[in-house]
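User: Okay, second chain of the day. Same drill as before: sequence in, structure tokens out.
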Amino acid sequence: MKCVIQRVKSAEVSVGGERVGSCRRGLLVLLGVGKGDTEDAAAKMAGKVARLRIFEDEKGKMNRALPDIRGEALVVSNFTLYADCGSGNRPSFTGAEAPERAEVLYRLFASRLEELSGCKTETGRFGADMEVSLVNDGPVTVILTDADLPKGNG
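Assistant: Same drill. Structure tokens below.
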């Protein structure tokens, strides 16, 4: 599982001109699900994102997480995070999970993020051609992968 997390002042996702999800101050999460990812990994990644301290405190230090600022989240599926450009110039996406399984884990991630953060969490439309707009805050962009997740039951 891979996440590109952007701290935003606002973000929205549209499909065919229709807004399907948005957030105010908080996080835009681009989520890629890889082959072999599990429900446990999705839950752990959601927990990591919910606890990620990338919002500034009164001293200007990044010490606050999404729940601390009562922010919102927008989660957008993005299988292209699994692009492999090692052979030639055309990316291969063989590392991405099959759509049916990926959608289950994507939805689980979004619901767990909302549950664990206590913050409003909206999503894009899985598998659709989406337009994502955002006002980046910082900019602050963080990439999380399976390697960043707690091991075992942590």
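The CA atoms of residues 30 and 76 lie 5 Å apart.

User: Thanks, on to the next one.
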